UniProtKB/TrEMBL annotation:
Statement: the UniProt record of this protein carries the keyword Acetylation: yes
Gene name tied to this protein: Pygb
Reactions accelerated catalytically: [(1->4)-alpha-D-glucosyl](n) + phosphate = [(1->4)-alpha-D-glucosyl](n-1) + alpha-D-glucose 1-phosphate
Name of the molecule in the record: Alpha-1,4 glucan phosphorylase
Primary role: Glycogen phosphorylase that regulates glycogen mobilization. Phosphorylase is an important allosteric enzyme in carbohydrate metabolism. Enzymes from different sources differ in their regulatory mechanisms and in their natural substrates. However, all known phosphorylases share catalytic and structural properties. Allosteric enzyme that catalyzes the rate-limiting step in glycogen catabolism, the phosphorolytic cleavage of glycogen to produce glucose-1-phosphate, and plays a central role in maintaining cellular and organismal glucose homeostasis.
Presence of keyword Manganese: no
Organism: Chauna torquata
EC number: 2.4.1.1
Amino acid sequence: PQRIYYLSLEFYMGRTLQNTMVNLGLQNACDEAIYQLGLDLEELEEIEEDAGLGNGGLGRLAACFLDSMATLGLAAYGYGIRYEFGIFNQKIVNGWQVEEADDWLRYGNPWEKARPEYMLPVHFYGRVEHTPEGVKWIDTQVVLAMPYDTPVPGYKNNTVNTMRLWSAKAPNDFNLQEFNVGDYIEAVLDRNLAENISRVLYPNDNFFEGKELRLKQEYFVVAATLQDIIRRFKSSKFGCRDPVRTSFETFPDKVAIQLNDTHPALSIPELMRILVDVEKVDWDKAWEITKQTCAYTNHTVLPEALERWPVSMFEKLLPRHLEIIYALNQMHLDRVAALYPGDIDRLRRMSVIEEGDCKRINMAHLCVIGSHAVNGVARIHSDIVKNSVFKDFYELEPEKFQNKTNGITPRRWLLLCNPGLADVIAEKIGEGFVTDLSQLKKLLDFINNETFIRDVAKVKQENKLKFSAYLEEQYKVKINPSSMFDVQVKRIHEYKRQLLNCLHAITLYNRIRSDPSKSFVPRTIMIGGKAAPGYHMAKMIIKLITSIGEVINNDPYVGDKLKVIFLENYRVSLAEKVIPAADLSQQISTAGTEASGTGNMKFMLNGALTIGTMDGANVEMAEEAGEENLFIFGMRVEDVEALDRQGYNALEYYERLPELRQAIDQISSGFFSPRDPGCFRDIVNMLMHHDRFKVFADYEAYIKCQGQVDQLFMDPREWTKKVIRNIACSGKFSSDRTITEYAREIWGVEPSSTKIPPPNLPRD
């Protein structure tokens, strides 16, 4: 069969034990067996470390995709890096984020199997020699890539795929060559330099940091993986044992490479290098093969997130790849120039090489010219990709551009994390929904069924009680389990507008203070997420949230009408606890900035209602469930663009809206930081003078919309009916649907639902 290779620098897997039991259909048996031993399975599960080899959406998407590809019976491999240290653990100290190293391998990892027999060399530095026999890349430094395999089981289909993660090893002669005679100890210690490549995950989400070590990581995973792919291509029955099989003609029919963002973009020049320099394939033929093999997924439109590597860094680290990129770019620009004669500005815009004080390689442009398919991750995002980010490329080759709206695996994000809800659903419609989530539509028949309404509400209340107990046990915070659980969990970023959430919390607080006797809908506002260690504003936002909580949670006038909780160290295993307990899901990015979002889908599937902007997949969620069944507010993309043309003036809103003015004045006067009144001046200054994400412009609509949330929450029956409608309409957001679309429309393979016979039965 055609093999699918999903290349990603991040795989945010979380824990594996329960997921394996669920997918093998062993959970009840294991539960019972452990219970008979006088142990509690849940206690055992809590001991496992998260595999936190990702930052957020992009890395978690890769993990959901692996689950779906196995469940759909695809011959798929996930390839990435076995970071010794994953995403940092977040501690909150005096209200500030403090990072500590995530030593997740400290006690070993029972799920991985080292494969030293498949160790491969990866080359760096050196120089290029052009000889009559072809091009040679020589005098390189070698690092070895050691593969570790982790099994990826499909759901009850006896399929087990592989995630192969590479670890860097120094070769035994490292730094002990002729020129280093004598300093043996120093040379052995220097092995660390090579092995640092797989030491740590870069903790940036949606931000490019042009560090040489990161470029080494990107080439390391690509070079090792491509050697593996080609070895497998040659040695399978389509390989080269037979003279016919030295031909790479059939390569794109047997191999599909999916690039998860531009991080593995070097696959394109690396495949060219292997085909042309090593396998002696003709250049034009090699280029056709490369384009037919590779496909690229774009994950963001934020300019600061796009990878633009200095040419000088390439020159030193990957000199042959630089030559190849120059040649590919020349070919590409010649084609553009022929189609648009005299349009010099278009050539500049479309070049892979950006001229300027520091010449840079635009990796997104490289991916677009080197792939046969380019996709965004939600309809609105794919439209922005076509009409703005890659507009010129879309005009050149419109057939290349597709949309593949993201999804989540219903195994982890319903069965595993919310068994109570899964049972209530299965009771009504059977278990088919687990592998065909569109069957949830059948729940629409039960929207007015009183027992079902009661059962759904009961499960939610149980989840809330359980999460309340967890918070009390872990963080010693007491919350009111009958309050509305209002949750925003995601990476801390200005575009995600946790600040808008803060302004709402302050506004609610001020309303309670001004009339404590009035009846309020009690809320527990929970905000969680990590800030990149070097992102000053994001760290300030965390400090603001904790400071607001400090004031509100200790004000006797407020009581348990309002609490603001910062959820420390948000990660996959915490998401599995908080999402099933949430009543309200906040998805409030500025329209046009969140490519898709996937947390939004998890909340929808788990019986929370969404308050959100028309951004990312929220648009399609509203389309599926009906806009009246979400709390949609604020500017649309068109409004944001209009406001940009007109010029956004924060002061105008500040002067017009008294509640907004009061909140900002409190932040700026030190009401929330009495010991350091100037603490939040950077935040206030940003909001008032250079807020790219227009927080104030959506404040009024947001506060009003939150009022509608309160109104509905006071009518539990109507609230629960909306919840059921949302769950019933969440079927589209299964990653099984997403992967089926990738398979048919990009990779050219057909998913299969056939169950392989188990190993104890003979095969047909």
